[in-house]
Amino acid sequence: MKTHLTKPADIQAEWWIVDATGQNLGRLASRIAQILRGKHKPYFDPSQDCGDYVIVINAEKVAVHPRRLDQKIYYRHSGYLGGLKEIPLRRMLQTHPRRVIQRAVWGMLPKNRLGRRMLKKLKVYAGPDHPHQAQQPKLLPR
Fold first, then answer.
1. What pLDDT score does 48 carry?
2. Distance from C-alpha of 109 to C-alpha of 34, rounded to nearest angstrom
3. What is the domain count for the chain?
4. How far, rounded to the nearest angstrom, does the alpha carbon of residue 129 sit from its chain's CA centroid?
5. Cα–Cα distances in Å, from 29 out to 7, 19, 97?
């Protein structure tokens, strides 16, 4: 038997569109992470960026358990003493719904150069409109 090595010239990226309306945040993020990595393709290689582009629409309508809206806290730090900022999921969904999905997907991708390149293939929009009609994205089944 011979080991198949995927070459960058063999990789063909497709565009997928995902409607986040009513979908569970964690399940949606894991499905998106699989597509961004390319694990759904027969020539998947963990050392190559084999993944596709993903467009997420209606990010503000993602489903989250009501208790989780207050329990989940997003943290960031300014670097100064006492500079820790805490934002609950409820406020993050109201102000920046795109970041909720981006952070959930980033948590499921590799933390290296390859993972950062994969995350750039994720396009998230709060509403139903997106500027990627020219790429002719296919609708991802639920």
1. 92
2. 9
3. 1
4. 17
5. 27, 12, 14
The low-confidence residues of the chain, meaning pLDDT below 50, are none
Domain assignment of residue 41, given as a range:
14-139
pLDDT tens-place string over residues 48-69: 999 999 999 999 999 999 999 9
**Phi, psi (5° rounding) for residue 72?**
-80, 125
What's the angle, vertex CA 48, arms to CA 37 and CA 9, rounded to 5? Answer: 115
Does an H or E element contain 118, and which? helix 113-119
Task: Measure CA of the first residue to CA of the last residue in the chain; give whole Å.
Answer: 37
Under DSSP, the state recorded for 131 is S
Candidates 56, 44, 70; CA nearest to 18 is: 56
Give domain status of residue 26, yes or no: yes
CATH assignment of the domain containing 44:
3.90.1180.10
How many Å apart are CA 108 and CA 29, to the nearest integer?
A: 8
Residue pair 108/122 in contact by the 8 Å Cβ criterion? no
Q: What is the pTM of this model?
A: 0.93
* Contacts with 38 (C-beta within 8 Å, 6 or more apart), sequence order: 11, 44, 45, 48, 49, 50, 51, 52
Residue 43, amino acid:
Y
